C-alpha cells in the first residue's frame, strides 16, 4: 500500500499487500455488505497460507484439522501434479462453516484478488452458512472445530494403541459408506460440545475396560419367521434405517468401542457436509452475487482503481464461465453461473419487470424489494426448491434450456420440452429435479436383521427409473459393510414404484 493510494481514496494500489491493507479492505467491504445488502455474518478469522497448504487443506475434504488417511494423501498428490503441470489452478480461498468463520487466503494472490475473495468467502459464504435453514438445522458452527480437534487426536491415539493397519481398515470401510451415512429426513443430534466430547472419552475408556469378547462364542438360535416376530424386531431396531453408518455403529456385534467411535466420527463429518451438497447453486450463487455487488459498489465510489477492477472482472468472468454442451471443457451446469444469473434475475424482476415477469412472479415483480427477496431465499431454500420457484422464462431462453426424453427401449432421444410457453414449467421442474439429492442418490436402507438368528443384515435398494448400481462398486461396498457388521450381508433391488424384485446380491463369509 502506497501513500498515494491512501490520499487518492483508493483502498489499495498495485498488486502487493500487507496485513494492514487486508484489514482496511475488509472493513470497507464489510461496511457495504451490512449497510447495502443487510448481511448477517459470523465473526471472521482470516488466515494466509501457501499454495501447498491450500492443496493440503482441500485434499482432506476442505478441512485443515482433518485426521490422517491415505486417501487424502492420494488426492493431494493428484492435485499437486495437475497444479505443477499447469493442468489445474488452485482455489483462491477456502472457507469453513464455523463460528468464527475461518477464511484461508492464498499468499500468492494479488491484493485485488484478496479483496475479491474476501467479499466472496468472508461475507457471501459466511452469511449463507449462518442463515440458511439447512445449515442451521443440520450443523453446529460453534462446535465443528473442537469436534475436529477431538476426532484428529482420538484417531491418532487409536493408531498408537491398535496399529495403523487396524485403524485404516475401519476408516476405509467407513469412508466407503459416507454417502449412505447421513440422516436425510429427520434431524440428528447436534455435534458434541467440549463437555460432551470429554464425556464421550470417559465413556469409551469405561467401555474398553469392560469390553468382553465372550459373546462371539454364543451359538445362534433358530430364526423365528412369523410375521408378528419380524414386525416386533423391526420396531425394536427402528427399521427401516436409511443411515447405514449409524445402524452399524449402534448395532454391530463385532465392533469394539474405539471402532464404533471412529464410525461416529466419519458419520458426523458426513452429516456436516450434507447441506453443502444440497445448496451448491445457492451457496456459490450467493457468494458470487455478493462479491460482484460489493466490488462494483467500491469501484463506483472510487475506492478501487480501474486496473484493479479489470483484474477483478477477469477473475469473476473465469469463475462464472459456462462452456457450451459441445465444448471439451463442458462438465455440466456451472453452479456459480446459474446461481449468479438467478439472483441477478430476481433483482431485475423486482426493479424492471416485463409483462411476462408479472404473470410468473406477481409477488415480487416491480416491488423493488430485491434485497428482502434474496435474503428470504437464502434462508428458506435449497437448490431444488430455489430453482423450482425462481427460474424464469427469461433465463430459460438465455440458457437455451430444453428437456430430452431418454427411453431405454428407444434408439433415439426425444426433445420433450423446449423454451416456449408450454415448455417453461416442464423445463423448470426437470432442472429442479436434477438438484434433488433425495432423487439422485441411491435409496438404500437396512430393512431387517435377526440378531438372535442368522444375524444376516438385509438391505434394500429402491431402484428409480431403472437406474441400477454399478456392480463392481456395489459389491465392493457390500464387502465393507460385511467387514463392519461381521456377518453375512445381502441386498435386494426392488422397483421403487411397483415393488418388483430386480436383483439380489450378497457378501457372505466366502465372498466377503
From TrEMBL:
<dbReference type="Pfam" id="PF04293">
    <property type="entry name" value="SpoVR"/>
</dbReference>
<dbReference type="InterPro" id="IPR007390">
    <property type="entry name" value="Spore_V_R"/>
</dbReference>
<feature type="domain" description="SpoVR protein-like N-terminal">
    <location>
        <begin position="16"/>
        <end position="438"/>
    </location>
</feature>
<dbReference type="InterPro" id="IPR057008">
    <property type="entry name" value="SpoVR-like_C"/>
</dbReference>
<protein>
    <submittedName>
        <fullName>SpoVR family protein</fullName>
    </submittedName>
</protein>
<dbReference type="InterPro" id="IPR056174">
    <property type="entry name" value="SpoVR_N"/>
</dbReference>
<dbReference type="Pfam" id="PF24755">
    <property type="entry name" value="SpoVR_C"/>
</dbReference>
<feature type="domain" description="SpoVR-like C-terminal">
    <location>
        <begin position="442"/>
        <end position="496"/>
    </location>
</feature>
<dbReference type="InterPro" id="IPR057270">
    <property type="entry name" value="Ycgb-like"/>
</dbReference>
Amino acid at each position: 500500500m502506497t501513500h498515494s493510494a491512501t490520499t487518492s481514496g483508493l483502498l489499495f494500489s498495485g498488486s502487493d499487500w500487507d496485513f494492514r491493507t487486508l484489514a482496511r479492505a475488509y472493513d470497507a467491504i464489510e461496511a457495504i455488505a451490512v449497510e447495502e445488502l443487510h448481511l448477517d455474518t459470523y465473526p471472521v478469522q482470516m488466515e494466509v497460507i501457501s499454495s501447498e497448504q491450500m492443496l493440503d487443506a482441500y485434499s482432506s475434504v476442505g478441512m485443515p484439522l482433518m485426521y490422517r488417511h491415505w486417501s487424502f494423501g492420494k488426492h493431494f498428490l493428484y492435485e499437486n501434479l495437475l497444479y505443477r503441470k499447469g493442468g489445474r489452478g488452485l482455489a483462491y480461498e477456502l472457507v469453513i462453516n464455523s463460528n468464527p468463520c475461518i477464511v484461508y487466503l492464498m499468499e500468492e494472490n494479488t491484493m485485488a484478488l484478496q479483496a475479491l475473495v474476501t467479499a466472496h468467502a468472508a461475507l457471501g459464504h459466511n452469511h449463507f452458512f449462518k442463515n440458511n435453514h439447512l445449515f442451521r438445522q443440520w450443523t453446529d458452527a460453534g462446535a465443528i472445530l473442537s469436534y475436529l480437534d477431538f476426532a484428529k487426536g482420538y484417531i491418532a491415539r487409536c493408531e498408537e494403541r491398535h496399529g495403523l493397519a487396524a485403524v485404516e481398515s475401519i476408516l476405509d470401510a467407513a469412508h466407503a459408506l459416507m454417502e449412505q451415512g447421513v440422516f436425510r429426513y429427520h434431524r440428528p443430534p447436534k455435534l458434541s460440545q467440549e463437555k460432551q466430547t470429554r464425556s464421550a472419552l470417559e465413556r469409551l475408556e469405561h467401555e474398553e475396560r469392560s469390553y468382553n469378547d465372550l459373546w462371539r462364542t454364543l451359538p445362534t438360535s433358530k430364526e423365528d419367521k412369523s410375521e408378528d416376530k419380524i414386525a416386533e424386531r423391526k420396531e425394536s431396531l427402528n427399521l427401516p434405517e436409511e443411515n447405514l453408518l449409524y445402524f452399524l455403529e449402534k448395532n454391530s456385534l463385532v465392533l469394539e468401542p474405539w471402532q464404533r467411535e471412529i464410525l461416529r466420527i466419519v458419520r458426523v463429518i458426513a452429516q456436516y457436509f450434507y447441506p453443502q451438497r444440497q445448496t451448491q447453486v445457492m451457496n456459490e450463487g450467493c457468494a458470487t452475487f455478493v462479491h460482484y455487488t460489493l466490488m462494483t459498489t467500491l469501484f463506483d465510489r472510487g475506492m478501487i482503481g480501474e486496473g484493479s477492477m479489470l483484474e477483478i472482472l477477469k477473475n469473476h468472468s473465469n469463475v462464472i464461465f459456462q462452456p457450451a454442451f459441445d465444448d471439451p471443457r463442458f462438465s455440466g451446469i456451472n453452479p456459480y453461473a446459474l446461481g449468479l444469473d438467478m439472483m441477478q434475475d430476481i433483482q431485475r424482476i423486482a426493479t424492471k419487470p416485463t409483462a411476462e415477469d408479472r404473470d410468473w412472479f406477481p409477488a415480487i415483480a416491480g416491488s423493488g424489494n430485491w434485497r428482502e427477496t434474496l435474503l428470504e431465499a437464502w434462508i428458506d431454500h435449497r437448490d431444488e426448491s430455489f430453482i423450482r420457484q425462481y427460474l424464469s422464462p427469461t433465463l430459460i431462453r438465455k440458457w437455451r434450456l430444453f428437456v430430452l426424453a431418454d427411453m431405454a427401449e428407444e434408439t433415439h432421444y426425444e426433445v420433450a420440452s423446449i423454451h416456449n410457453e408450454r415448455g417453461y414449467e416442464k423445463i423448470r421442474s426437470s432442472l429442479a429435479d436434477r438438484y434433488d439429492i433425495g432423487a439422485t442418490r441411491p435409496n438404500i436402507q437396512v430393512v431387517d436383521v435377526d440378531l438372535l438368528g442368522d444375524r444376516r443384515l438385509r438391505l434394500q435398494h429402491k431402484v428409480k427409473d431403472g437406474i441400477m448400481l454399478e456392480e463392481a462398486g456395489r459389491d465392493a461396498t457390500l464387502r465393507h459393510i460385511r467387514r463392519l457388521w461381521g456377518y453375512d450381508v445381502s441386498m435386494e433391488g426392488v422397483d421403487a414404484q411397483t415393488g418388483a424384485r430386480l436383483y439380489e446380491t450378497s457378501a457372505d463369509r466366502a465372498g466377503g
